[in-house]
Design goal:
It is a single chain. With about 500 residues, this protein is of the alpha/beta class. It is about 30% helix and about 15% strand. Strand 2, helix 4 and strand 3 form a beta-alpha-beta unit. The termini are far apart.
Length: about 500
């Protein structure tokens, strides 16, 4: 006789066992899946970290091709809770130590210029995102000629600059062209040592590098330049919000390997090509490009009266070195890969755009840049009239150096913008000393307090206590904290 209750119980038990086994298999599968995800994620993070920390070029292809590869190094570390798009390299060059009695450069040009320049970059990076809205981090480098190490290293290393000792790319005795070999040592500001700037192209761990002179100041972020260099020009035929020279658009599907400005102040009659202004260059690093520059210098095909390659890239001030070889490379050898920027917005020097003097704010003469664009009918912008709020970077050339304590307070177009630029330099210096180094703030209306705390009572609202009197002898140097002046 069969016990139906027993069979029903056994069947129920069997169903319960099968149900329990199913749940167990589901749990085991879920655990295995979770472990796989964790392992995969860890491996991905590890490989990304190694790629970010490693060297190599910022693109998987030749930089001249303009094809943006997937191997551009991206940041993995967050800054203030934000993910930087990339770290931009910023480089300065020190080719020699200041000579006693040299105008405007008596040591402050290296130490103080470097300190304020770096802090201006810091303020316009992701580290100050709340105000700057920038999404790019930065790393500072100093390309130092061996003869300048004694003054550059103690001044720049405590500020957080990575010191890279670099000699000239090609020794003088290896330059084949006799004219260049004999004449370049006395050309421009620094002779053949100006070529040391070209080592910026070897910083291939960054997708973009900005080379600036020490007497420059960054006033606004340059994210749009980096975006265009990394991602390419806009496809709609616009400039992407970048102030291109002459209001031109960026060329879609064309690689952007450099942004630069020209120095039209060096123009002269019958000039074929204007030189690049040597204090500002945004470049795409590439070892191949650097090697090509080395080859050009070694060949030394700079001709008397017609410049590089006999193509009219010279003669003008500095044409044998950086100011001439840059436009020769991007205008002639690799046309369309370099973009000239509006020099009233980038690298503004408050210069007269015309070839005759300005009197009582009335300009005269012809546009210095008119030969390049006759379609503009001799109409050119006066950079001295640009609102300060529009300027991205400034270069203290015609305005003279901030550390000369020149008030620039004449009511003339030549001085009004210069005074604003100098005022910004002192504002950035004060922000560095008070907000980063923790020194005491002072009211800018009290000369006695300024003199007591900072040593200077001359035009306190402008010089912020760092000038004792008119002229370079009145300047009070930056004192770097004993713990170092790194901003990060």
């Amino acid at each position: 006789m069969v016990n139906l209750n027993s069979r029903r119980g056994a069947a129920a038990a069997a169903r319960h066992h099968d149900h329990h086994g199913c749940i167990t298999r589901l749990i085991q599968g879920f655990v295995a899946f979770t472990v796989s995800v964790i392992v995969f994620g860890y491996c991905y993070f590890l490989s990304s970290s190694i790629a970010t920390a490693g060297g190599g070029s910022g693109s998987g292809t030749d930089a001249n091709s303009g094809i943006r590869g997937s191997s551009i190094r991206r940041n993995t570390a967050q800054v203030n809770g934000l993910q930087p798009i990339a770290t931009i390299g910023y480089a300065v060059t020190v080719s020699g130590c200041p000579k006693e009695g040299s105008r405007g450069d008596f040591g402050a040009g290296i130490s103080d210029g470097a300190a304020v320049l770096k802090h201006s970059i810091h303020l316009n990076s992701i580290h100050n995102h709340a105000q700057s809205q920038s999404l790019y981090d930065y790393q500072m480098y100093a390309l130092v000629h061996p003869e300048a190490e004694s003054c550059a290293r103690p001044a720049l290393e405590p500020l957080g600059y990575e010191i890279l000792l670099r000699d000239v790319p090609v020794p003088l005795d290896q330059i084949e062209g006799q004219f260049l070999r004999e004449k370049v040592p006395s050309n421009g500001c620094c002779g053949e040592k100006e070529f040391v700037k070209l080592h910026a192209y070897t910083l291939t761990q960054h997708p973009a590098v900005v080379h600036l002179d020490l007497d420059t100041l960054v006033l606004k972020p340059m994210d749009r330049l980096y975006d265009a260099m990394i991602n390419g020009a806009p496809k709609d035929g616009s400039s992407g919000g970048i102030d291109v020279a002459f209001g031109d658009p960026l060329v879609a599907n064309s690689p952007i390997n450099a942004f630069f400005t020209r120095d039209y102040n060096m123009n002269h009659a019958n000039m074929k090509h204007a030189g690049a202004q040597g204090g500002f260059l945004v470049l795409r690093p590439s070892q191949e490009v650097y090697d090509e520059f080395v080859s050009i210098i070694r060949k030394g095909d700079f001709r008397q009266g017609s410049g590089w390659g006999g193509e009219g890239f010279g003669p003008f001030y500095g044409s044998m070195t950086f100011q001439g070889i840059i436009p020769y490379f991007y205008d002639h050898l690799h046309p369309g890969t370099g973009v000239e920027l509006n020099h009233c917005v980038y690298n503004n020097m408050a210069d007269n755009p015309r070839d005759k003097p300005t009197r009582n704010d009335i300009v005269s003469g012809h546009c210095r840049d008119g030969y390049r664009r006759p379609d503009k009918n001799d109409q050119c912008e006066d950079c001295r009239s640009r609102p300060l709020e529009d300027v991205v970077t400034t270069h203290f050339t015609l305005c003279q150096k901030p550390w000369e304590c020149l008030p620039q307070d004449g009511d003339r177009i030549q001085e009004r913008l210069c005074r604003k630029f100098h005022g910004e330099w002192y504002r950035v210096r004060e922000d560095l000393e008070t907000n980063i180094w923790g020194r005491k703030s002072i009211p800018l209306t009290n000369a006695d307090e300024a003199k007591k705390e900072r040593g200077g009572g001359y035009q306190v609202s402008h010089f912020r206590g760092y000038c004792k009197e008119h002229g370079k002898k009145g300047y009070i140097r930056v004192e770097i904290p004993s713990t170092g002046g790194s901003l990060q």
